[in-house]
């Protein structure tokens, strides 16, 4: 019976964590470049159950040999192994703001490949983002809304001198006196990158390979790829599963209480 307690409790915990991930997705449904998290639920390792018994051999001495009869497998609960970001392309919306840039995927050489802007976080380390909601700070540098420097192809913060600029489709930022290639990075497996908050990803990425194509659209933003309606449906399903496990846990608790009280009276 104690195994039933743990199984039901693990189900409640896994559904609670799924609710947290879905709630975070809905919260960021309007965040440019946000990639929805998809909780991956796994079962704890299966146990192969056997019935223990004896096999009688009809001899003069009446020999008995131990025997095992397979019953079947038994799972002992579920858990959320990890939250896997969905790196699918979000819709592109025009904003008319010249500092906004949408990075639109073209043909990529790897099915799991992905393109990102390169930025510099508060510790001076390179990070990657799909959020092209940029602005220009008081010193004339192109930065994210959190104040992180946007880097060029050489890994240097982009200085615009506070002037308006144009961005070509191949990612060339053009000011009156200079052409600066945006630092667009490529990874052949987006699942090797880890979310770090503020729309940033941490990991290894390289220069864009020759076989990859993309378009930078100035005055537009890539929207979040969260499907709010689908996320709400999934939240309702997770809530119902949580309630189901809760009722199972309550039933086990009542059975345990009844067994303890009746055994105590018989004693």
TrEMBL record:
Keywords: Bacterial flagellum, Cell projection, Cilium, Flagellum
Major location category of this protein: other
Pfam annotation, one family: Flg_bbr_C
Domain Flagellar basal-body/hook protein C-terminal: 217-260
Record domain Flagellar basal body rod protein N-terminal: where: 5-35
Compartments where located: Bacterial flagellum basal body
Residue ranges of domain Flagellar hook protein FlgE/F/G-like D1 in the record: 114-173
PANTHER family, per database record: FLAGELLAR BASAL-BODY ROD PROTEIN FLGG, FLAGELLAR PROTEIN
NCBIfam families: FlgEFG_subfam
Protein family per UniProt: Belongs to the flagella basal body rod proteins family.
Protein name: Flagellar hook-basal body protein
Organism whose genome encodes this protein: Lentibacillus salinarum
Organism ancestry: Bacteria, Bacillati, Bacillota, Bacilli, Bacillales
């Amino acid at each position: 019976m104690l195994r039933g307690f743990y199984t039901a409790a693990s189900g409640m915990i896994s559904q609670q964590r799924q609710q947290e991930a879905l709630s975070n997705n809905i919260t960021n449904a309007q965040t440019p470049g946000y990639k929805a998290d998809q909780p991956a639920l796994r079962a704890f390792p299966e146990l192969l159950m056997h019935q223990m018994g004896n096999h009688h051999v009809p001899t003069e001495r009446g020999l008995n040999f131990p025997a095992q009869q397979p019953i079947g497998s038994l799972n002992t609960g579920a858990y959320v192994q990890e939250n896997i970001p969905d790196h699918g392309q979000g819709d592109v919306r025009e904003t008319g703001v010249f500092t906004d840039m949408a990075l639109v995927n073209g043909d990529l050489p790897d099915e799991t490949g992905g393109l990102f802007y390169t930025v510099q976080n508060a510790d001076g380390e390179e990070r990657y983002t799909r959020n092209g909601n940029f602005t220009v700070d008081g010193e004339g540098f192109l930065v994210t809304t959190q104040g992180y420097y946007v880097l060029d192809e050489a890994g240097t913060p982009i200085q615009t001198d506070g002037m308006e600029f144009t961005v070509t489709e191949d990612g060339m930022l053009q000011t009156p006196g200079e052409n600066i290639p945006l630092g667009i990075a490529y990874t052949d497996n987006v699942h090797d990158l880890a979310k770090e908050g503020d729309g940033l990803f941490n990991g290894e990425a390289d220069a864009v390979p020759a076989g990859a194509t993309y378009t930078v659209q100035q005055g537009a933003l890539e929207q979040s790829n969260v499907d709010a309606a689908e996320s709400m449906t999934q939240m309702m399903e997770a809530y119902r599963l949580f309630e189901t496990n809760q009722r199972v846990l309550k039933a086990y608790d009542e059975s345990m209480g009844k067994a303890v009280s009746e055994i105590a009276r018989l004693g």
